[in-house]
Design a protein that fits this description.
This protein is 83% helix and 2% strand. By secondary structure, it is an all-alpha fold. The protein has one domain. The chain has a two-stranded antiparallel ribbon. Keywords: Coiled coil.
Length: 162
């Protein structure tokens, strides 16, 4: 059976608990009836031969009720097992979800880090492109060309560069 979602498993759990409560109530009613029949059979003032058939009928009814009680106890046990299974599957489902969520969160952090790195590299690239364009500008090239045509004096050596 595949893992149940929280809503489904909760509904199944509630239904199983409701059935278990009903069985317990039926079992209590059967136990009361059984007790009353046993008590009336043992304290009956009519223990004569003529009433032996009534006593036998009561004994048969008691036996039937005991068998039904055993059956109800068995069904109660099965329902308790079903409740345990649903609880276990819900727990496993929750663990699987937690693992998937942790993996997704780690992937998100990785993607955010990559995105930040790409953004940083893109900004650096844009900066270098703008510097390259600035260096290729005609005004700067003219200024550089004009600078090296004039004599440059070094204050230490008094050298001139042409």
């Amino acid at each position: 059976m595949p893992p149940l979602c929280g809503k489904c498993s909760l509904a199944a759990y509630d239904e199983l608990n409701r059935q278990l409560t009903e069985l317990e109530m039926e079992g209590n009613a059967y136990e009361e009836t059984l007790h009353c029949l046993q008590e009336s059979a043992s304290t009956s003032p009519y223990n004569s031969e003529s009433n032996q058939t009534v006593i036998n009928e009561c004994d048969e009814e008691i036996e039937k009720l005991e068998n039904e009680l055993k059956l109800l106890e068995f069904e109660e046990t099965q329902l308790q097992w079903d409740i345990d299974d649903v609880t276990k599957k819900e727990s496993e489902s929750s663990k699987e979800y937690d693992e998937l969520f942790r993996g997704w969160k780690a992937g998100q952090r990785s993607l955010i880090s990559r995105n930040e790195l790409l953004h940083s590299l893109n900004n650096q690239n844009l900066y270098y492109l703008s510097q390259n364009e600035r260096l290729k500008s005609p005004e700067l090239l003219k200024a550089i060309a004009g600078t090296f045509k004039k004599p440059v004096f070094d204050p230490c050596d008094k050298l001139v560069f042409n």
